[in-house]
């Protein structure tokens, strides 16, 4: 990746050169070409891990070719270690950029590539009421705009994965939908034990930002660039997560793939996470696990984690904006959204039929509690910043300090706050 100060300096020069390149909100002439069938090649820039080659073909390339044969889609995954900024430097700007609201679209915005979609949405009669409102709101919050510059096409879901064999072994009832975090904690206490030399863990809460997002807790003030983590609500989340790990025998912090491996292997009873089904190969041992709804906080009943959506936006420099919008229109069509859902990529359309069809074409998902996925609603999002990853790392470090080093929560929060502000200050100074 480019050094931040170099990247920002380059961005400022590029933004000036792009100032007059199709950035007007009226869509230029492209909006008048809705029936134009002139051959067009639409390039799509994205991080390669976000869409497999098979998914690119199934959900984008083939459906677009079938519906709009004059449009050719060229998928352009970023090379290892590269970024959108480097594509711009090379003069190779894609027509469509795929990004996530969690990242805040910051690079895309700084490069002057954002393009408002209002006119294209209107001229193409896209019905935004089909979409989950939380997903659209998350895009607007990420860009701090009232209009849309990107359309979501998939999002993560949250769930509580559990190993049925561990519950059966210790004669403990399976988790139920609608449990609170406290109820999950009580189950964890019953399941954390040693048996025949094997240490069983009751619950892995995963990275702390997931459970904090249910309460819409921000990390950094987007205006002052100061940490917002030293609060009573953040302290309550930190205290609870620490309490889970302080159950005797449950003090190993194992997140992401490590936790999924332990859950599949039968030494971890419950794992609160996102849709790790494919990434963490839960299909490799489908008979041992099932899911329940993601545990909730009493003050936020029925809410899962905040929206983490992948979205497509059209760059201001694109010469094929109308054709690019047809690509977005295709991947968010009922047909493709249903196909995605049935094959394990969660849709963003609010009609219950899309969520209830999740995994229908995946044999290993038979008899799973699919309702648990869509029974919870995404929590209201907050405005993300380019420094959130720094704060997330600091908060997970604070949790580790409490669990592993015995640091008290107040000290851990204060140290995290100081560390976040120091790092942001250095980055801000370096970019000037």
Structure in words:
By secondary structure, the chain is an alpha/beta fold. It is 41% helix and 15% strand. It contains 17 helices and 12 strands. It has helices at residues 4-18, 53-67, 84-89, 106-110, 118-123, 133-143, 164-169, 181-191, 208-213, 232-245, 256-265, 321-331, 334-342, 352-356, 371-375, 388-405, 409-430, and strands at 40-46, 71-77, 96-100, 151-155, 158-163, 193-195, 198-204, 268-274, 289-293, 303-306, 309-314, 377-379. β6 (193-195) and β7 (198-204) form a beta hairpin. The chain is globular. The two termini are 19 Å apart. The relative contact order is 0.17.
The string of secondary-structure elements, in order, is HEHEHEHHHEEHHEEHHHEEEEHHHHEHH
Radius of gyration: 23 Å
Strand content: 15-25%
Question: In which range does the helix fraction lie?
Answer: 40-55%
Low-confidence stretches: 1-33
Q: What's the N-to-C terminus distance? A: 19 Å
Secondary-structure class: alpha/beta
| Quantity of strands, as a count | 12
Q: What features would you highlight for this structure?
A:
432 residues, 12 strands
What is this structure, in a nutshell?
By secondary structure, the chain is of the alpha/beta class. The chain contains 17 helices and twelve strands.
Describe the secondary structure blueprint for this structure.
Blueprint: H1 4-18, E1 40-46, H2 53-67, E2 71-77, H3 84-89, E3 96-100, H4 106-110, H5 118-123, H6 133-143, E4 151-155, E5 158-163, H7 164-169, H8 181-191, E6 193-195, E7 198-204, H9 208-213, H10 232-245, H11 256-265, E8 268-274, E9 289-293, E10 303-306, E11 309-314, H12 321-331, H13 334-342, H14 352-356, H15 371-375, E12 377-379, H16 388-405, H17 409-430
Parallel strand pairs: 1-2, 1-3, 7-8, 10-12
Antiparallel strand pairs: 3-11, 4-11, 5-8, 5-9, 6-7
Helix pairs in contact: 2-12, 10-16, 16-17
């Amino acid at each position: 990746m480019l050094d931040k100060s170099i990247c920002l300096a380059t961005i400022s020069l590029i933004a000036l050169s792009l100032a007059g390149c199709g950035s007007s909100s009226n869509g230029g002439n492209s909006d008048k070409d809705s029936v134009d069938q002139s051959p067009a090649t639409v390039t799509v820039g994205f991080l390669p891990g976000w869409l497999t080659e098979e998914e690119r073909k199934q959900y984008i390339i083939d459906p677009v070719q079938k519906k709009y044969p004059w449009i050719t889609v060229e998928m352009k995954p970023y090379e290892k270690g590269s970024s959108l900024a480097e594509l711009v430097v090379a003069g190779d700007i894609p027509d469509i950029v795929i990004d996530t609201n969690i990242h805040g679209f910051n690079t895309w915005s700084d490069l002057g590539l954002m393009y408002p979609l209002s006119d294209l949405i209107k001229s193409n009669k896209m019905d935004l009421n089909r979409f989950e409102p939380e997903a659209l709101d998350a895009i607007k919050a990420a860009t701090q705009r009232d209009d849309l510059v990107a359309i979501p096409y998939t999002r993560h879901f949250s769930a509580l994965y559990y190993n049925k064999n561990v519950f059966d072994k210790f004669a403990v009832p399976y988790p139920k939908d609608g449990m609170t975090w406290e109820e999950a904690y009580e189950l964890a206490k019953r399941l954390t034990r040693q048996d025949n030399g094997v240490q069983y863990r009751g619950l892995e809460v995963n990275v702390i930002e997931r459970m904090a997002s249910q309460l819409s807790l921000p990390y950094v003030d987007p205006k002052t660039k100061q940490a917002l983590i030293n609060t009573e609500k953040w302290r309550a989340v930190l205290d609870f997560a620490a309490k889970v790990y302080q159950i005797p025998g449950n003090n190993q912090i194992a997140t992401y793939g490590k936790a999924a491996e332990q859950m599949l292997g039968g030494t971890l009873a419950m794992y609160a996470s996102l849709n790790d089904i494919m990434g963490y190969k839960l299909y490799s041992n489908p008979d041992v696990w099932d899911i329940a709804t993601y545990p909730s906080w009493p003050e936020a009943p029925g809410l899962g984690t905040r929206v983490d959506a992948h979205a497509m936006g059209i760059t201001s420099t694109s010469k094929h904006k109308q054709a690019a919008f047809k690509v977005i229109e295709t991947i968010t069509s009922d047909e493709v959204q249903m196909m995605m859902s049935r094959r394990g990529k969660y849709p963003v359309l609010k009609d219950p039929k899309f969520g209830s069809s999740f995994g229908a074409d995946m044999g290993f998902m038979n008899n799973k509690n699919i309702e648990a996925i869509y029974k919870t609603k995404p929590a209201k999002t907050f405005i993300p910043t380019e420094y959130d990853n720094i704060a997330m790392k600091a908060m997970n470090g604070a949790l580790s300090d409490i669990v592993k080093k015995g640091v008290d929560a107040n000290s851990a929060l204060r140290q995290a706050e100081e560390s976040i502000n120091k790092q942001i200050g250095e980055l801000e100074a370096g970019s000037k």
